[in-house]
């Protein structure tokens, strides 16, 4: 029993580095694409056309009880996901992202487990 528990703990810590890399670019030196606005829908936009709906997710390792995340071992920052959504929208021809939503972190496990978070928004093209 002790060997199994020790193997789970060691394996979880080894996986932390791999999990934090999945779905999230961690290069802090890269500049985001030029997006005019990233908003939750409180802006006023006229004569725009929707380019697409963009979504990025991150998966991390954390400590918690059932659905309550108490401590995240691998830090997944929503700002990194926002940057990726902005880049995706700009690549699709958008110059703004509206109706952006940052989903709260959801924990799946008992004591040690995985959590996920995501950012999504609608890319729009406005006249200049």
Task: Describe the protein in words.
This protein has a single domain, classed as Translation Initiation Factor IF3. It is elongated, with a radius of gyration of 18 Å. It has helices at 2-21, 78-91; strands at 49-66, 68-72, 96-102, 106-125. By secondary structure, the chain is an alpha+beta fold. Residues 17-30 have low confidence and may be disordered. It has a four-stranded antiparallel sheet. It is built from two helices and four strands. Strand 1 (49-66) and strand 2 (68-72) form a beta hairpin.
What is the first-to-last residue Cα distance?
66 Å
Count of helix runs: 2
How many DSSP E strands? 4
CATH architecture: 2-Layer Sandwich
Series of secondary-structure elements, N-terminal to C-terminal: HEEHEE
Oligomer: single chain
Q: Round the mean pLDDT to the nearest integer and report it.
A: 78
- Total count of domains: 1
What topology, given as strand order, has the largest sheet? 2-1-4-3
| CATH homology-level superfamily | Hypothetical protein apc22750. Chain B
Largest sheet report:
4 strands, antiparallel
Rg value: 18 Å
In CATH, the topology is named Translation Initiation Factor IF3
By CATH reckoning, the class would read Alpha Beta
Question: Given the helix and strand composition, which structural class is it?
Answer: alpha+beta
Please give the share of residues in helix.
25-40%
């Amino acid at each position: 029993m002790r060997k199994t528990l020790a193997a789970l703990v060691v394996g979880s810590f080894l996986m932390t580095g791999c999990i934090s890399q999945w779905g999230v670019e961690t290069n802090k030196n890269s500049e985001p694409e030029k997006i005019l606005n990233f908003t939750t829908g409180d802006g006023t936009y006229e004569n725009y056309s929707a380019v697409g709906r963009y979504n990025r997710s991150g998966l991390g390792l954390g400590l918690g009880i059932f659905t309550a995340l108490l401590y995240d071992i691998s830090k997944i920052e929503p700002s990194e996901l926002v940057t990726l959504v902005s880049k995706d929208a700009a690549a699709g021809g958008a110059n703004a992202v509206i109706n952006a939503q940052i989903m709260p972190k959801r924990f799946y496990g008992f004591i040690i487990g995985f959590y996920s978070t995501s950012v999504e928004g609608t890319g729009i093209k406005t006249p200049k």
